[in-house]
Design brief:
- By secondary structure, the protein is mostly beta strands.
- The chain has 2 domains: 5-153, Sandwich (Immunoglobulin-like); 156-310, Immunoglobulin-like (Sandwich), CATH 2.60.40.
- 1% of the residues lie in helices and 42% in strands.
- It has 1 helix and 26 strands.
- The chain has one helix at residues 139-142; strands spanning 5-11, 30-38, 53-60, 63-74, 77-79, 85-87, 93-99, 106-108, 113-118, 131-137, 149-150, 152-153, 156-163, 169-182, 185-188, 193-196, 200-211, 222-223, 231-233, 236-237, 255-264, 270-272, 281-286, 290-291, 296-302, 309-310.
- Strands 1, 2, 3, 4, 5, 6, 7, 10, 11 and 12 form a 10-stranded mixed beta sheet that branches. Strands 14, 17, 21, 22, 23 and 26 form a 6-stranded antiparallel beta sheet that branches.
- The longest helix is centred in the middle third of the chain and has 4 residues, at 139-142.
- The chain is elongated and about 140 Å long.
């Protein structure tokens, strides 16, 4: 029998990972081999240009047809090293797909389809975009054109930017920190829902020095993420750090912090951190956003009227980095009369 290609078309979105356990053997009539063809959106974003492989598991009803298998990019399609074929009797096959293929902790069988205890890397540069897709297909409908797989991003993407319109100071940033979101969760591939743990973490990245300025009209503020790219973190409702009543952050509230140096523009005197020795120190601001999966959150830190608080992990946490604007109360004293009598007699008056 002639064997033609079985393809799955992947539509725009993000991917996630799955793995399957061994199930009962299933006898099927052999059709064309199964392949995948993706079209994806961006975390580092996963997109059509950088996606090199995906992992897919197939089910016939409740029975595992094939275990999680890596399908590598080959031209317009993603193919497995050993072929899997459409059932010749036109049975419907259900698919669970994910990326990156290197993710650990996935179990997929008759009763469990989860990614367990997933934790984003604490170094932002090492974080990955986690994306998933579910679909069904059959020989009569999808053998030639392929099965569309719509991938969705399952993490929240975080970008931090900075700007200032205050020309009296120079603000230099050399690092970014996202403090104390929940760091561990398990994902259910059937409900697309996360179950979060209680452990929290600090995510951090050093960057090449960025000097803040006021962006041109219509232009975005300067990104502070550097070569590491944007953060990929678990969706969740954040509880904000309280710098006034919990300066050392015993309650592990959430915040964004930048590694900062502030100098005066005209004299170059360093005013943060103090004493002046050319160093930088973290400056933080609380956040309480509800991060949702598949959404990108852009935080723009505006230093025009202040610079936040000393980071909870630095000396004197919760202290405002800058005080209020310098202002004066002016009193002008009343004139005091001091009489001076002068004799207008001239030398000729004495003659």
């Amino acid at each position: 029998m002639k064997k033609t290609a079985f393809a799955l078309l992947l539509a725009a979105g993000s991917l996630a990972m799955v793995s399957c356990s061994q199930e009962d053997d299933i006898t099927v009539n052999q059709g064309n081999k199964i392949e995948f063809r993706p079209a994806l959106s961006r975390a580092t974003e996963t997109n059509n240009s950088n996606l090199s492989d995906i992992t897919v598991a197939g089910f016939l009803g409740d029975d595992l047809y094939f275990r999680p298998t890596v399908f590598a990019k080959d031209g317009s399609f993603f193919v497995s090293s050993s072929d899997y074929y459409w059932p010749g009797d036109d049975s419907e096959v259900s698919f669970y797909a994910y990326a990156p293929s290197t993710l650990a902790g996935v179990t997929i069988d008759k009763t469990t389809k989860t990614l367990a205890d997933f934790s984003p890397a604490t170094s932002i540069a090492d974080q990955v975009d986690f994306i998933t897709a579910n679909a069904t297909g059959k020989k009569s409908e999808n053998e030639s054109a392929g099965v569309p797989l719509t991938f969705d991003h399952r993490l929240a993407q975080i970008e931090v930017r900075g700007k200032t319109s205050n020309e009296n100071y120079v603000f230099k940033v050399t690092g970014i920190r996202i403090g104390q979101p929940v760091s561990t969760g398990s994902f259910d591939f059937t409900t697309d829902a996360w179950t979060l743990g209680t452990t929290k973490a600090i995510y951090e990245s050093d960057i090449d020095e960025v000097t803040l300025s006021e962006p041109a009209e219509g232009e975005p503020a300067a990104s502070l993420m550097g070569d590491a790219g944007n953060a990929m973190l678990l969706p969740q409702q954040l509880t904000a750090w309280d710098p006034v009543n919990d300066d050392a952050n015993a309650n592990a509230g959430a915040y964004i912090s930048v590694k900062l140096q502030i100098t005066t523009a005209d004299t170059g005197v360093q005013i943060y951190p103090f004493p002046s020795d050319g160093n930088c120190q973290w400056a933080a601001i609380p956040i309480s956003t509800n991060w949702e999966a598949g959404k990108k959150y852009i935080y723009t830190l505006d230093f025009s009227h202040g610079a936040g608080y000393v980071d909870p992990h630095d000396p004197t946490p919760g202290t405002p980095v800058l005080g209020g604007p310098i202002k004066f109360t002016v009193t002008v004293t009343d004139w005091v009369d001091t009489p001076q009598d002068l004799d207008m007699k001239t030398s000729s008056d004495s003659e």
